[in-house]
Automatic annotation (TrEMBL):
Keywords, sorted A to Z: Methyltransferase, Transferase
Name this polypeptide is given: Putative rRNA methylase
MF (Gene Ontology): methyltransferase activity
GO biological process: methylation
Length: 189
């Protein structure tokens, strides 16, 4: 069930529940502390495969520990690599790609996703997505780079060909301090 009043990091999973099947290949483009990777690994089952990218070793280590504790590590391929290069490693078609932009929670916030890399990654992700597949992006306009990145991503998604893709934005209108929000892209069947 999809509740648009939940947090964006919950709504993305509610949307994906209806898209991911057991045995699918899927991508976590920003694995961070591994919450999304863990969710994806549970959804694809033991015959599925999750590709999870992050440029910070600390993030991959935290994620690996989390997956091992849950017995999910065998269905995940962790890549210490920028998501802008994801097409080099991911074998498509994939049923979903998750992006959760910004910085690693609990870190020094110096390493953040960069607009140019994010767009390159989205471009690659859309080319790998199967028909009926979904790309989700949680954006953080509350900090300066995040605000710029959110606008760049929106401009890019607004220009996608509507005969091929359907894009959505789910945002709280009256919250202070530019809270996070969600964008999603469905690849048409
Ligand atoms: N999805 C994560 C979770 O569930 O815990 C949270 C992700 S966190 C908000 C954003 C992550 O993106 C950080 O860990 C950061 O290192 C990573 N990142 C920054 N630039 C990246 C890039 N070019 N490619 C892949 N990951 C990147």
């Amino acid at each position: 069930q999809i509740n648009p009043f939940n947090k964006p990091t919950e709504i993305d999973k509610q949307l994906l529940d209806g898209v991911i099947s057991q045995g699918d290949r899927v991508v976590d483009a920003t694995c961070g502390n591994g919450h999304d990777t863990e969710y994806l690994a549970n959804r694809v089952g033991d015959q599925g495969l999750v590709y999870a990218f992050d440029i910070q070793k600390q993030a991959l280590e935290t994620t690996w520990k989390r997956l091992q504790q849950e017995g999910l590590h065998e269905r995940v391929r962790l890549l210490n690599k920028g998501h802008e290069k994801l097409i080099e490693d991911v074998e498509g078609p994939v049923s979903c790609v998750m992006f959760n932009l910004g910085y690693l929670p609990g870190s020094d916030k110096k390493v953040v996703t960069e607009p140019q890399n994010t767009i390159r990654a989205i471009e690659g992700a859309l080319s790998l997505l199967k028909a009926g597949g979904l790309l989700t992006i949680v954006l953080y306009p509350g900090h300066e780079t995040g605000m710029i990145e959110s606008q760049v991503v929106q401009d890019y998604l607004m220009r996608l060909d509507q005969t091929k893709f359907h894009t959505k934005k789910i945002i709280s209108l009256n919250f202070k301090n530019n809270p996070p929000y969600l964008m999603a892209v469905l690849k048409n069947k």
